[in-house]
Amino acid sequence: MKVRAALLREVPGKWEVNEVELDPPREGEVLVRIVANGLCHSDDHFATGDIPVGHLPLCGGHEASGVVEEVGPGVRTLKPGDHVVTAFVPGCGRCRWCAGGQQNLCDNGALMLEGHQLDGSYRMHLDGEPVAQAGLVSGFAEYSVMPEYSCVPIGADMPLELASLLGCAVPTGWGSAVNAAAVRPGDVIVVMGAGGIGIAAVQGAAHAGAARVVVVEPVTSKHDLCLDLGATDVFTSVDEATELVRSLTNGQGADAAIICVGVLTSADVGAAFVRSGRPGRWSSLPQPPATRPRSTWRRSS
Ligand SMILES: [Zn+2]
Ligand SMILES: [Zn+2]
């Protein structure tokens, strides 16, 4: 079938809409009608060259929601009509990592930046040439074909335009606070940058019981939203926030600093390091849970 898709054809370059040929789903794959796709900063990193692209042209978008239209042979967990959110790290549910509760480390994730599908071939084509798919997903298209493992089914009553954010920004930010920074009740937390990821980190830190969630966000129009969603204090620069953080912690510095800025620089990391205390935790990328999930095996009596 022919579908419209936003492609990156050179780096640095721009996302431009083209008509591409989309193959039907093969073994273990599904055809999804894309309803919504969040614009992640990673898509901009691809366009600027900050994140290397393995193959061009590339169809972007890894934060999508949609409706399954068709399933390929062997698909067991999805059927046409299912509403789904995409996962840019496919989770097979069966490998050593998935079975241990760390789907973010699924063996299949090794292929997330390659551009082709799990069997090494391509489903999108432009003038007969293969088109890479971002995270095996490519939400920048009217329809896309992806692994069954890349889809997480959701309830049909969940608004799809909101659910798409669960594909990247929300779990990335929330997980940075709850898992990587391991926020504890009473903590003083600094969140640098309140974009899609940062604002989810704010909510994660508040949910985990932080006493103060101090946000540094230079765009003042975002400040009220930060306060609505869990921030206790908002500043436009790190330097402005420093005095408060030191006064709250007897000069020790924050318990954790979570860096969610658009383009990470050594200055940002240095600032976070200085503002967090001696045992402080800081994170700029989501990490696996700090502790292994507790076993759910129970002896049957
Ligand atoms: Zn993303
Ligand atoms: Zn797996």
TrEMBL record:
Is the keyword Metal-binding assigned to this protein?
yes
Looking up Gene3D superfamilies in the UniProt record yields:
Medium-chain alcohol dehydrogenases, catalytic domain, NAD(P)-binding Rossmann-like Domain
Q: According to the UniProt record, where is the region Disordered?
A: 280-301
Q: Where is the Enoyl reductase (ER) domain?
A: 13-296
User: Pfam families from the xrefs?
Assistant: ADH_N (PF08240), ADH_zinc_N (PF00107)
This protein's UniProt keywords: Metal-binding, NAD, Oxidoreductase, Zinc
Q: What family does the entry list?
A: Belongs to the zinc-containing alcohol dehydrogenase family.
Q: What is this protein called?
A: Alcohol dehydrogenase catalytic domain-containing protein
